[in-house]
Amino acid sequence: MTYDKYLIDDIGERRERKNQYILDSIKAEESGGPKIDPQNHPYNQKLKAYEEKKKDLLNKASEKAKNDPNYKIDQKYLRDLYYTRSIANDMLAFYEQNKDLSYDSELDYKLCKLDYEQIPKIIENDLQLKSQLERANNRLEKLTTDEIEKNKKLIEADRDVLKDKFEADNNNLKESFEGGRISKKAFQSEKEQLKQKFKDQNKRLNYRNPEVSLKEEIASIKYKIEKDYKKEMKILEADKAEARRRTPVEVEKTSAYRSIISLPIPGLGQFLNGQWQKGLLFLLGTLFIYLIAIPYALGFGNYQGEGIAGLISLAAGGKRLDRSILFMIEGILAIVFITFSFLIYVLSFKDVRSVEKKEMAGIRPNNFFETKKMLRTDGFPFLITAPALIVIIFIVIVPILTAIMISFTNMDPQHQNKFTWIGLNNYITIAKGQGIAGQAFWHIFAWTIIWTILASTLAIVLGFIFALLVNNERIRGKKFFRTVYLLPWAIPAFITIMFFSIMTSRGGVIAEAINSLFHLSLDIKNNTYQTRATLILLQGWLGHSYIFLLTTGVLQAIPKDLYEAASIDGATGAQRTFKITIPLVLFQIAPMLINQYTFNFNNFSIIYLYNQGGPFNPEVYGNLAGSSDILISYIYKLTMENQYQAIGAAITVFISIILIIISYFGYKNSSAFKEY
User: Which residue spans adopt a coiled-coil conformation according to this UniProt entry (predicted)?
Assistant: First the structure.
């Protein structure tokens, strides 16, 4: 890589180079001449002389500023201002004399000039405010007790007058209301206004007390001193940042070597770029990598495991008390830590390389003020979401990875403490309907699909129909019906489920009533089809409230003009429903309807609470599942009740893939998402 002839500052303006050594190097390269020695080049010698003289003058100016009487004052911020002003006064002429030497010297002049122009104003404003503060304190000290008491008596007398006036106005207002001259609403409004006016006038009376008013004035001046200083310093820093943006930088290098040499130590490159604060942050990342992540991945600091090696071995050949699950979890944590470390390396490398390339192009690295400004604007979303992302990784991603990995092992009742990797055997067993899953898996899977479609569709249809009825203008008692239709959502679902479970049991009120009325001999909870039908009806009732609420909100937002226009065009009620209402409702709530299907696919509570997945039919479903079990309840029985964690994890992965596919295509094809 060679030098470019031109530079670009941070606002995109093209600037000519001032560094004569670089210009001569470009000419020598273009003409094929010998390489120029940077040490002996006259321009570099001038720069060196400038830096040496600058350093010498700064030292002298610093000593002079420290000997100034103003440097002995107590307030540090004011002492620093006097110090900076003194430096600017002494250095401005030197910087102005050399401002055309290089862009760095030009920036020195601009920054010094800003200090020279603005800091005296900041000091002057501060001194004026402190003078006001001193005068206010003096007036407060000179107040006598007699003067204060005299004013208090006058204020109390005025307060009594004010109170009498308030009571009189209040009585007049009350008489107007009782006489029917104003409405109740106007009376209440006027009464509140009178109260507020009375409070405000009372508060203003307090400030007629010189002691109170002076204390308030002193507090206000102190606040203004602090805020004005911060505001003026921010303005100064912003002006300096703008000067940096408009002044390019010239560096005598043609490759981004800092990003390479600092790759093993994140933060080092930032230090080399002069970004100390950012470097400290990345240095914390370096400490995490070399003191936590790598040792943990190698097995140091593990509770039982051996880091990544333990994830491979799963405690095979280990101690008798070693548990494979701990080796697996700690191995996964090691991978997470290594992933974090890799991200730190990548982010540090990209940051250093980006800054270096910009610097070679002419753009100066951000200083601390500019970095803070960037974090408050562009970086704010990342700062806010980063903690949540880290928490999600440990409470969501790690358990998911653990479940996926368990599905590739033989973890079962015989292999609880120590299990091994068996590859895809669990998935093959499920696909073939063999092993512990047996043929029950496909029966349960088929019923899960039927259950999801029928229960969800029933809830959606009921909710939509009830919403249409309640929102019909001819229906009376809408509040009553809304309350009734929302009750299933308001009452905890497990109460409703347990109630119907008892009522539909053999001898239950509902079961006996149906048998008596229709001369049947139903045994709902011991008959597969009757149990399934009851579950579908029960979930339709429980789930319709949510759909009812969503649909009601959408229906109330549909303009009536659409229906009126359709009626004028001769549309029937059914046509208006199918051509206007349903499309508009579906457009708004389609994503929530998809959620209904995915929710019921994994609706464990109603299946287990109603009949624990029964009735049981060992010939078809084996000894672990019932005929009303869906996949999620089957997984519960496999894992929690019978310790077949591996096969349960494999089924979980299978379910997750199905739900992800359904949700993806459902959301992708819904009109609400297509709009965006």
Answer: 123-246
Q: Are strands 6-8 and 14-16 parallel, antiparallel or unpaired?
A: antiparallel
Nearest to residue 235, comparing CAs of 349, 117, 75, 153? 117
How many CA atoms are closer than 13 Å to the CA of 244, on its beta-carbon side?
A: 15
What's the mean pLDDT in 362-383? Answer: 79
Stated pTM of the model: 0.78
Structure confidence at residue 670 (pLDDT)? 65
For residue 294, count other CB atoms closer than 10 A to its CB.
16
Q: Which two tokens stand for residue 658?
A: 């199905």
Distance of alpha carbon 500 from alpha carbon 504, whole angstroms: 6
Length of the chain: 676
Tokens of 430: 């499920």
- The encoded tokens of residue 261 equal 């040499």
Mean pLDDT, rounded, of the chain: 88
Whole-angstrom distance, CA of residue 139 vs CA of residue 151: 15
Compute how many other C-beta atoms are within 10 angstroms of the C-beta atom of residue 186.
13
Q: How many CA atoms lie within 13 A of 21 on its CB side?
A: 20
Phi, psi of 558, rounded to the nearest 5 degrees: -75, 125
Hey, what are 61's tokens?
């100016």
- What integer pLDDT is reported at residue 673 of this predicted model? 55
Q: Which of 57, 110, 107 is nearest to 87 (CA)?
A: 57
Structure tokens at 158: 């005025």
Q: What is the pLDDT of residues 245-255, one digit of tens each?
A: 999 998 888 78
Pairwise CA distance, residues 130 & 81, whole Å: 15
Q: Are 167 and 195 in contact (CB under 8 A)?
A: no
Model confidence pLDDT, tens digit, residues 451-501: 999 999 999 999 998 888 888 777 777 778 778 888 887 888 889 999 999
